[in-house]
Structure formats: C-alpha cells, structure tokens
C-alpha cells in the first residue's frame, strides 16, 4: 500500500492540497469581511481559482498561507468595493438633527463596520475576527508592523465616527 | 469607548457570525474546479489572448518580411528603403495620433511630470490592435451654462446599461459598465450622449476596478486587477487603446481619478492616500502634498484647468480640520483654507463651472454630516445650501453618512435622493453649488419610479443620461 504522505507530489498537486486545506479558514475570514455566507462562499471559490491561475507567483511554499490570504482579502475587498459602487438611494429626512450623545451600542456595530472602507473592514476581520496579532497581520499582508498599527488606530477612529453616525441615523428614524 | 473596549465588542461581533467551518462540499467543489481548470501559460496572466495572437501574427509577418527583405534586391538591401508598418484604423473619421512611447510609474516624489524611464524599469506601453468599431453618429455638443429647470425623458434605444461611470472628454463620452468578475468590463462611446456604440468586449479586459478621466490629448481608463496591479489605457479617439503599467491606484470610487486638458490626477493605493499626476496616462509623477504627512486624500476633482482634492487627517495628530488642497497643474499642491467646525474627514468633492461642493463626516466631534461649498477651491465653508438634507438611514459615502448622492461634470452639479419611502427621487442641479434648482421631470416616468439603486443619473453637456440595469433614458433639458 502506498504511503500517500511519502509519495512525491507535483507542485500543482501541492497547491491543490493547500487550497482545499485552507477552505475552512478562508471561509471564516471571508464571512468576517463580507458578513454574508453566500458572498463568502463565492469569494473563497473565486480566490482559489485566482490563486490557481497565479500559482507561478508563489515563490516559497513556506509563505503560501499569507499568499493565499492576500488573494482572498483582495477578492473580498473588491466585492465590498463593487457593493459600494452601486449607489443606493436612501430616504431623506430634512428635519433630522444631532441628538444627545451617548455611547455607541453594540447593536450598531455591524452597520458601523459596514460604513468603513473595504481595506478597513478587511483589517478588522483579520485582527478581531481571525484574531491575528499585529506581526501576523504584517506577515500575511506583506506590510510593516508599524503600518498595521497605524492603520488599526485610524480604523478604530473611523469606526467610532461611524458608530456616532449610526446612532444619529437611528435617532432620526425614531 | 476606548480601543480595548471597541476591540472586545468587535471580537464578540465576529464570534457571533463565526461559521466555524466552510459549507459542506465547498472544498470538493473547489477541488473539482481546480481539476478542470485549464492550465494557462504564464504570460497569459498579464496579456490578453487577443493581444497574444496579434503579437504572434505580427511576429510571423515580420519573419516573412525580413526573409523577403534579405533576398537579393529585397528592400532591406536597398539604401533608404524601409518597411512601413500599417495599422488598422478603427474609424476613418477619428484619426489616432501616434502612440506615446515608454510608460513609467515613478515611485518617488518628483517635481517633473516626466520621470526617467530608467528610474522605474516599467515595461513599455503596448498597443492593442484596434478592432473595427462603427463610430457613433452625432457630434459633441457645446458646453452650456444655462440653468436647467426640467428634463424631458425619452427611452434610449441601444444606450448603455448597468453603468458605473460616464466620462466626458474632448471626443465625446465614455460609459464604463460595472465590473463583474470574471466578465469583461463593458464600455460604450458616444459623441452626443444619444447615440452609443459598445466597444469590443475585451477592450479593457476583466479588471476588478475601472475609472476613466479625460487627459491632455484624449482620455484614459485606469483599471485595477484582482491582485492589485494598475494598468492605464490611453486613447485619442475612444476606439484604439494603448495600455501602460502605472502606479498602484485606489480606483474604488468616482473621486479617485480626475482629469482635464492639463492631465490626470489619481489617488494612489497606499495609505496615507497620496496623489500622482500624468499629462496623458503614460508617465506618472507622485505629487507632493503640503500639510500633515498623515493626511489622506479621499477624493479629487478637476476644476477648470486645475484640480481640487479633499481628505482626512490620519491618526498621527488626532482630530482636526479636514484638509483640502488645490493645484493649478496637478503636481504642485497648496493647502486650502477650511473653516473650523464639525467634520474632520472629507469624503467627496465635485466641481461645477462656478464653484465646488464637498461632503464630510465628523470623527467624534458632535455635529451632523456637513455640506461644504467653495468658489475657487482655495477656501471652504460649511453651507446651508444642501438641497437634500441629512440621510436618515443607510450609508452613501464610504465610512460615513451623507447628505445625498451628488456628482458633477465640471460644468454642472446634480444631487438626487428619495425624500421618503414610496416617493419618486428628487433631482436638483446647480452651476455653483450654492444655488440649486429642482428639476421637473416629464416624459417617460419609468426612469424616475422609486426603485432604489435601480437608475442612476449621469450628467452630460446636453442633458442627463439615466441608466438602469436593462434600460437607459436621455433627459433633454428644459430651460
């Protein structure tokens, strides 16, 4: 009986195995970013096919995880951008004004995250969804740790602003 | 709520939606798809098959020609003889100018818009063989600054559908369709906004993002691939396009690329978001922005022959006035004066003939989303002129609420929104951002029925193009 693990495999087979082995993690990350299981499923399939087409660009198998994560994050980011580019007409309220200030409720958080840029949503999903550390994110995204820190800081600032905007929107409706 | 508390709330939110595992069978489906995925040659990832075929054909012709030329008496043996490469002309009536040469992305700030090709090592521009495109009828209408009071709507046979942008340039209009992977981005051209011709399906490939802008000698389309590369396509006639590599651009919103007779300004992809300028889309130079080095540009627009940009201050200095800049040439930028007050983050700017508008949201400072106006782009002030009011639900601008949807074409502004559910959208126009006129819409009412997200208006010189997913309409101005 052949020992499959010991049998020599081609580089293409190795990529296939990697992509299939990463499906669960990839689906979780795509769900965190897109917050839509169906869109996440599409994104994972799209990223896998894109990675397959780009497999020649993977120079070092040791970095395959980060390589595939970058492709997946890019696919999710582009899906978020496509959503943002489709203008949505919204109801207007001329009488709406600023209301009393209070801390943002957790219930507003999903909508507030949705107001952030695609890059910011991806970063939050990596840090607080996948719960990667700053060095791990830096390694996955191929950017300096300092850049990750500053982006996280500004993203959280923008999130606070978005929470405030959500709170006002909710009050205006009431 | 401090960073730690916010982080804990985020973790709780993500844990609540954590699927733990992929849906059953997803890995098998991916495995099957990979098994049947055709192997593609390495160069195909960056080169379209049609272009590769054309290159092969040209190479074969050259081999034969050189073989014939080297024969005794052949043209390569005769002094002064030279083969003349013929190029298919898409439209005899639209003459293409010679293709610009080397294309280069300059990674470093430069005072000159013409970085040295050797400094960046980019690949040379490639010319796609032009395919035959029947030119649209009609001619480019003159710019009118008359006040519009209404629009007479008529269905437009053969007009563009499912469009993300319409760009006016000296040769007419270019409409870009939405990008839906893996389908090619559709594109249409028109001289008068009424008669449209669709470009060949693979003109711009299958980008993830695409934006267009006029430039000094034609029009450019910047496309972003799914892996982040940016390619700029340049045309002098709207039908024959030349591609060049370019600095990585953001290209996620309409305000990420702007152009006029001076050239093109693009928001770059790296944060903090900066700007690059090119006269024609083939040579780029990074622009130097004064002010806080952590500031990010969030939108740019052409204004006359100059440019105006707005943005926000990053995290390095905390909250403060929203930054805005102006430039006469796209390379040298100056800080604009911004009235102190709520709104530390601009996210949108649009230009008309006699003024500009910008939208901002506040980052922790009490106050509503703000509507700003400026006459020249040098000084900005919050204005009560917003014709639409505050959004009561939903988000329009990235990262913020908004006072409605606005766009401008350098001559005129249009703002639109639905005041209350089940009502038709309102459309307002302005030539300066301060004085607005509500448009009375008559004719085919299908375009104005309350179908959120269904129909988008695009300003033209001689009217408004309303584009839905399956139909389009032309709105003739009533004055």
Topology at a glance:
The complex is a heterodimer of chains A (174) and B (479).
Chain A: H1 11-21, H2 23-34, H3 37-53, H4 64-85, E1 92-93, H5 109-114, H6 118-129, H7 134-141, H8 145-173
Chain B: H1 3-16, H2 26-36, H3 49-69, H4 117-120, E1 126-127, E2 150-155, E3 163-169, E4 172-177, E5 187-190, E6 196-198, E7 209-215, E8 218-224, E9 230-235, E10 242-246, E11 257-259, E12 264-267, E13 275-278, E14 285-286, E15 296-303, E16 306-312, E17 324-327, E18 333-335, E19 337-338, E20 345-351, E21 356-361, E22 370-374, E23 379-382, E24 390-391, E25 405-408, E26 413-417, E27 426-430, E28 436-438, E29 440-443, E30 456-460, E31 463-467, E32 472-478
Parallel strand pairs in B: 2-29, 19-23
Antiparallel strand pairs in B: 1-10, 2-32, 3-4, 4-5, 5-6, 7-8, 8-9, 9-10, 11-12, 12-13, 13-14, 15-16, 16-17, 17-18, 20-21, 21-22, 22-23, 25-26, 26-27, 27-28, 30-31, 31-32
Structural account:
The complex is a heterodimer of chains A (174) and B (479). By secondary structure, chain A is mainly alpha-helical. Chain A has 2 domains: 9-89, RNA polymerase sigma factor, region 2, helix turn helix motif (Rna Polymerase Sigma Factor, Chain: A); 91-174, Winged helix-like DNA-binding domain superfamily/Winged helix DNA-binding domain (Arc Repressor Mutant, subunit A). Chain A is 67% helix and 1% strand. Chain A is built from 8 helices and 1 strand; from the N terminus they run ααααβαααα. Chain A has helices at 11-21, 23-34, 37-53, 64-85, 109-114, 118-129, 134-141, 145-173; one strand spanning 92-93. In chain A, α2 crosses α6. Chain A is globular. The model of chain A is unreliable at 1-8 and 86-104 (pLDDT under 50). The longest helix of chain B is centred in the N-terminal third of the chain and has 21 residues, at 49-69. By secondary structure, chain B is mainly beta. Chain B has 4 helices and 32 strands. Chain B has helices at 3-16, 26-36, 49-69, 117-120; strands at residues 126-127, 150-155, 163-169, 172-177, 187-190, 196-198, 209-215, 218-224, 230-235, 242-246, 257-259, 264-267, 275-278, 285-286, 296-303, 306-312, 324-327, 333-335, 337-338, 345-351, 356-361, 370-374, 379-382, 390-391, 405-408, 413-417, 426-430, 436-438, 440-443, 456-460, 463-467, 472-478. Chain B has a domain at 160-400: Methylamine Dehydrogenase, Chain H, CATH 2.130.10.120. Chains A and B meet through α1, α2, α3, α4 and β1 of A and α1, α2 and β24 of B.
